[in-house]
Write a structure and sequence with these properties.
- The chain is an alpha+beta fold and about 100 residues long.
- It has a single domain, classed as AF2212/PG0164-like (Elongation Factor Tu (Ef-tu), domain 3, Beta Barrel).
- It has helices at about 25-35, 75-80; strands spanning about 1-10, 10-15, 20-25, 45-50, 55-65, 70-75, 90-95.
- It has a seven-stranded antiparallel beta sheet with strand order 1-7-4-5-6-3-2.
- The radius of gyration is 13 Å and the shape is globular.
- The N and C termini lie close together (about 5 Å).
Length: about 100
């Protein structure tokens, strides 16, 4: 089974001293993903293909209890190529592969 999602969100730093930059998957989509993904041991990551602008890359979504949503990490190579950074709103396409 595969599912796809499109949404816009603001890039943010995980913490002031942390170099990780994320965009939160909206709560409605996060709730749907949570229902679709089989429960597995571990911390609940979900493998996806992500796309921002013209850049597509394989990665994982990570659950955030604080935000009640999944987070998509946006690596430096993507941010550099797309000329985006924390505070920018981006359009995201996600494709989940569910076993």
């Amino acid at each position: 089974m595969s599912e796809s999602y499109r949404f816009s969100g603001e890039l943010f730093l995980a913490a002031a001293q942390d170099p990780w930059v994320f965009v939160a998957v909206p709560s409605a989509e996060s709730d749907e993903i949570l229902e679709l993904v089989p429960r597995r041991p571990g911390f609940g990551s979900v493998r996806v293909m992500a796309k921002i602008g013209t850049t597509e890359w394989p990665t994982s979504l990570f659950p955030s209890k604080e935000l009640g949503a999944y987070l998509l990490p946006v690596k430096k190579a993507v941010r550099t190529k797309e000329k985006i950074g924390p505070g920018d709103t981006v359009k995201v396409a996600l494709h989940l592969e569910i076993d």
